[in-house]
Design brief:
about 140 residues, alpha/beta, Rossmann fold, 5-stranded parallel beta sheet, globular
């Protein structure tokens, strides 16, 4: 039996980078994957790679800085699969390399909205789902 067999895994930022690598690793371990990423993402390659590993998957549009988007993504995942077992909150962005003294305030606000507030929104609504269903696991990347 594989480690994540019969588990539903929700991954924000799951269409590229570390998130995609985690999605592929979870798929190899038998998980069903909900790849949650920006609505305008071209996710077809990621979905094909996950399916090629024999895993079931779906793409769920999300903007973690938007609370309604977070709630909708979690709801769609639960509607499709009946529950949520593991949440990997991985979505995030980096600031400019020029240093904080040159960083525009708009850039700072965007970083905080995605990297901090987005984590809060995801954890809040994932926890509500886990409390309703009797448990689950959350992993936050920073």
């Amino acid at each position: 039996m594989k480690k994540l067999e019969n588990k539903i895994v929700f991954i924000t930022g799951g269409n590229s980078g570390i998130g995609k690598a985690c999605a592929l690793a979870a798929a190899k371990e038998g998980a069903t994957i909900a790849v949650a990423d920006l609505p305008n993402s071209d996710y077809s390659q990621s979905m094909n790679e996950i399916k090629a590993l024999g895993a079931e998957c779906m793409f769920v549009p999300i903007n973690v800085a938007d609370v309604e988007s977070v709630k909708n993504a979690i709801t769609k995942t639960v509607e499709e699969y009946g529950r949520l077992d593991i949440a990997l909150n991985n979505a995030g962005i980096a600031g400019t390399a020029s240093g904080i003294h040159n960083m525009p305030e708009e850039t700072w606000n965007k970083i905080i909205a995605i990297n901090l507030t987005g984590q809060f929104y995801c954890v809040k609504y994932e926890l509500q789902q886990f409390l309703n269903q009797g448990g689950g696991v959350i992993v936050n990347m920073a």
